[in-house]
Specification:
It contains eleven helices and six strands. The protein is an alpha/beta fold and 254 residues long. It has one domain: 3-Layer(aba) Sandwich (Rossmann fold), CATH 3.40.50. The strands form two sheets. Strands 2-3-1-4 form a four-stranded mixed β-sheet. Strands 5-6 form a two-stranded parallel sheet. The radius of gyration is 17 Å and the shape is globular. The structure holds adenosine-5'-diphosphate (ADP) and magnesium ion.
Amino acid sequence: MHSERGVGKTTTAVNLAASLAVAEKKTLLIDVDPFGASAIALGFTPDKIKASLSEIFAFTHSIKSAIHKTDLEYLDFVPSNIYNVNMHEKFIQNLENRLVIKNALKDIEDFYEFIIIDCPPTLKGISTNALVASDSILIPIKSGHFSLEAVDRLISYYEWLKDVSNPTLKIEGIVLTMYEKDSKVTKISERELKMKYSNYLLETVIPNTNLLNEATFYGKPLCLFKLNSEGAEAYLNLAYEIIEKNNKEELKVK
Ligand SMILES: Nc1ncnc2c1ncn2[C@@H]1O[C@H](COP(=O)(O)OP(=O)(O)O)[C@@H](O)[C@H]1O
Ligand SMILES: [Mg+2]
């Protein structure tokens, strides 16, 4: 889950992970953004967090001890919580090691059908660590508020990373967020993206809806806050689109 700040990465990570869980796919959401926005969106206050990514980077805890159950049976969560502990220094030191997350995942990846990692907006450090551990990258883009140059930059970074560290990394897709179907800028940005990146653009679009904001405020994914809503439906559709796409690719491999 990667791109600029405020484009809907965390909202997408949390709601997509929850929707995959609703579809009964065993899913793990890992927050690697130091500000821990996913934890807030899932209602995890610091007192509910027993261990987090910072302990994994400090090699004091295994990833298993940082896995938290959520309100959804099929969804587990690893919080980030980096700035709430004294391990910041250690954390920064070990970021140089690009393999920390990849190695940690080896112990648990067989338990999950999907592992979603919510990245911060920077294209280095922890994001590189996350992308080295990933099979694919999902790029949320805010409708009407993006520059093609920024998308180009992200794609070049992806190509560099693929070359140097993760040759099998794929692009899962680009998903338009905060989509306003009657807005001219939404239409223009969709057209521009279709011209340049039609192969990556996913069919599902995520509408601009304050309910997503509200659900985050109450610490719930939208499907647990108001299932019968355009936003919850959109994220369920995104989950189904991604499940279908992965099923097809699996068939191709076989
Ligand atoms: N589809 C949407 N409609 C309306 N508001 C949204 C939508 N997606 C995200 N937001 C809001 O936009 C802000 C930034 O979203 P967030 O997911 O935190 O972005 P990022 O993780 O990319 O920084 C948050 O306040 C969030 O509630
Ligand atoms: Mg975020």
